[in-house]
Amino acid sequence: MHSDISHFISFMIGSCMGSFLNVCIYRIPNKKSIITPPSHCPFCKENIPFYLNLPIVGYCFTKGRCFNCSRTISLRYPFIEILTGILCCISFSYFGLTLEGLFYFMFISTLVVISFIDFDLQIIPDRISLPGIVIFFFSFFFTGNMTVKDALLGILLGGGFFYIAGLLYYMIRKKDGMGGGDIKLLAMIGAATGVKGVLFTVIAGSFLGIFSGFIAMIRNKDSQSEIPFGPWLSIGSIIYIFWGEALIMGYYKLIFFQVPRLFS
């Protein structure tokens, strides 16, 4: 019972954060304040009453329409609230009610904002990634598995190495291989997860990106479709935070212990 209550509270806190993330996703690319004005309908600009601004519940109560102009509100708003609620539950279930759990939930929330902005506009705003590198550099203060050295090397690998790789790709192919926003995102991920986290993120994100690109190519019948890479890097990073160590160890055991048995 106690566990159910804590999960419910975590979900509610996360969904409230998701409501704020919706504001960030809409306003940051448009260079608007995330504080003022209050939440309002994107069509008629009428302020939303507080009782209709409750996460998930407000959307259900209004049946997905503005209370004033009756225009349809995107289903993505409650989706992000539910998603963030679930991620909050996972964070505090995994790390407990600790500074580490809070740190990683804030990091994951930042990745959610970046992902949806990149999906919409195929950009990763410097207003998020550059301060994020500085803020998440202090991962060593909040987490037990990071040191100052880990954070610095993660930033250098994520930002420096992949910048050089992208530059070499451009020199050879005369075409951008990795956008500057993705490189800054990787530096931010490196600050929070270290070298191992960056490497895992790039590998997992690449597989996810290739798979999504293949699906998009089949659906659109267009081999030139541009696929934003930021969301897949973000998903790869989230996978690493919760399950990365277990997946790495499982892969290691598969390669060095289980595979030879198949031939015995």
Looking at this protein, list some descriptive labels.
9 helices; single chain; 264 residues; disordered C terminus; mainly alpha
SSE blueprint and pairings:
Layout: H1 2-27, H2 57-61, H3 76-95, H4 99-121, H5 126-136, H6 139-142, H7 148-173, H8 180-220, H9 230-261
In words, what does this structure look like?
By secondary structure, this protein is mainly α. It has 9 helices and no strands. Helix content is 71%, strand content 0%. α4 (99-121) packs antiparallel against α5, α5 packs across α8 and α7 (148-173) crosses α8. It starts with a helix and ends with a helix.
The helix count comes to 9
* Largest sheet descriptor: none
Kindly state the percentage of residues in helix. Answer: over 70%
Order of helices and strands: HHHHHHHHH
Measured distance between first and last alpha carbons:
49 Å
Strand percent estimate:
under 5%
- Spans with pLDDT under 50 lasting ≥5 residues? 259-264
Structural class: mainly alpha
The chain-level mean pLDDT equals 87
Number of strands: 0
Q: Return Rg in Å.
A: 20 Å
The backbone outline, from C-alpha atoms, is: globular
